[in-house]
Design a protein that fits this description.
TIM Barrel; 8-stranded parallel barrel; globular; binds beta-D-glucopyranose
């Protein structure tokens, strides 16, 4: 009887042969070695050292998982996971301690080179993010992402990185989650810890898009022919549902603000800001007595530069929220987590969506399929890489069945989006290889397929049940065959 169940399940829930499974991490969250060799200071180093109260457990990433020293062990974990690719990020100030290419750290450059070689030796493809939030502090001192020159500085950095690793890296992610960089970073939650929502955040949005586009165009002009790689970025896409049908129009505007603001300029045929958002911002800014829209316009030249600057579409997805108008006098907290002050939108949840260790992350897998269908409808059939998806818990249990259930149910929705809605998803990366510094939550919230003992100097990594599950998925491309077998064997 069991084998009959297995056959049906296997036939029904298997990803196609060429589909790639991977796993992700980021430099500040895992590396440690914050001042190793000649590494420069990043905005996260600065933020956690000067404002420790911003982190729930007052911890920091000074040592984190110590992957600066333990990367060989990480590669072993990756091999055991059977993944096709490993998505990691490069710390800009580790390679360019001043932020500028006048000085390249030999040790920093070697660290990533060795990691890339180590991965390739094991047949694991490196997928490299150039920026996962650890901006060199000297650039922040010059205004960071609000200084228009940053798009040039980023392209200069990208050139160094392409020169160093372009021969071996074929999938590039310029920037991870611009919305976190700009909206959360300028809403006093993440580094640089500035409060400039609605002004700094939009300058940042524009400059992040230009920075990405310049790095893309540089690759296209000087490296693509030689190396045949692919460049894009990955955006955070939380799905939104109207709380009631009356909230539909407002929810569409909230989607324009949170998803399309970062996608439309790159992936739409027209380019530029999403028209509904641009109109809204122009009107609202005028009503507020602003001489011009707080959403800074693009020139025609900039629209052309940014439009089409992609070889695939990258997205990170964790959760869905409901959206409704805020009641009068109701406070709206952090961007993406509590609502959108710009639109007077309050985010919420439905009672049937289960909770996790992170207040902002509720489990509603169907939202994933809805999001993927929206992306297809909005931006066409470009290949999609899901660059992050994962489940937070308190990290105490190696038998993390709820995480396994999360992955099974979210992967099922990806499959349905592919099979039923024709969405062109080509790869999926779970978040994360191991527990790591979870930003404002420090080490209180864990998303790793491997547990990390942060009390031990060895930072011992131990596979959770979810690691075994994911290893089976990555090997068989089947979201339940091996798992069911494992479950039956356990019972
Ligand atoms: C970020 C990760 C983070 C994860 C879970 C994503 O938005 O890219 O760095 O660990 O969310 O919070």
């Amino acid at each position: 009887m069991y084998s009959a169940v297995l056959c049906v399940a296997a036939a029904e829930r298997r990803f196609p042969d060429g589909f790639k499974f991977g796993i992700a991490t980021s430099s500040y969250q895992i590396e440690g070695g914050w001042n190793a060799s000649d590494k420069g200071v990043s905005i996260w180093d600065h933020f956690v050292h000067t404002k420790p109260e911003a982190i729930g457990d007052r911890s920091n990433g000074d040592v984190a998982c110590d992957s600066y020293h333990k990367w060989r062990e990480d590669i072993q974990l990756l091999e055991d996971l059977n993944v096709d690719f490993y998505r990691f990020s490069i710390s800009w100030p580790r390679v360019l301690p001043t932020g500028f290419p006048n000085y390249i750290s030999e040790d920093g450059a070697r660290y990533y080179s060795d990691l890339i070689d180590g991965l390739l030796e094991k047949g694991i493809e490196p997928v490299v993010t150039m920026y996962h939030w650890d901006l060199p502090q000297p650039l922040q001192d010059l205004g960071g992402w609000t200084n228009p020159l940053i798009s040039e500085w980023f392209a200069d950095y990208a050139r160094v990185i392409y020169d160093l690793y372009g021969d071996r890296v074929k999938i590039w992610v310029t920037i991870n989650e611009a919305t976190a960089v700009c909206d959360i970073g300028y809403d006093d939650l993440h580094a640089p810890g500035l409060e400039s929502e609605g002004r700094g955040s939009y300058l940042c949005t524009k400059h992040v898009l230009l920075a990405h586009a310049k790095a893309y165009r540089l690759y296209e002009a000087e490296y693509k022919l030689k190396y045949q790689g692919q460049v894009s970025l990955t955006n955070q896409m939380m799905w939104l549902e109207p709380e009631t049908v009356e909230d539909t129009e407002l929810t569409e505007l909230a989607i324009a603000l949170s998803i399309d603001r970062y996608c439309y300029p790159i992936f739409s045929l027209a380019g530029g800001w999403p028209p509904a958002l641009e109109r809204y911002m122009a009107q609202k800014s005028a009503q507020e007595g602003e001489p011009r829209s707080r959403l800074p316009p693009f020139t025609q030249e900039e629209i052309q530069l940014v439009r089409g600057s992609y070889d695939y579409l990258g997205l990170n997805h964790y959760t869905t929220h409901t959206a409704r108008p805020a009641a009068s006098g109701e406070t709206i907290g952090t961007y993406l987590i509590d609502g959108f002050k710009e639109l007077d939108v309050k985010l919420g949840t439905r009672p049937e969506w289960s909770s996790t260790a992170s207040g902002w992350l509720k489990v509603y897998p169907e939202g994933f399929r809805a999001l993927l269908s929206y992306i297809k409808q909005q931006y066409g059939d470009t290949s999609i890489y899901i660059m992050e998806n994962g489940f937070p818990d308190a990290g105490t249990d190696l038998d993390d069945q709820p995480r396994v259930d999360y992955y099974t149910s979210y992967l099922e929705q990806v499959l349905l989006a592919m099979e039923e809605d024709g969405v062109n998803v080509v790869g999926y990366s779970a978040w994360s290889l191991m527990d790591s510094f979870e930003w404002n939550d420090g080490y209180q919230v864990r998303l790793g397929l491997h547990h990390v003992d942060f009390t031990s100097p060895a930072r011992t990594r131990t596979a959770r049940r979810s690691a075994k599950y994911y290893a089976a998925v990555a090997r068989t491309k089947d979201i339940d065959a091996e798992y069911q077998f494992d479950k039956i064997a356990d019972e």
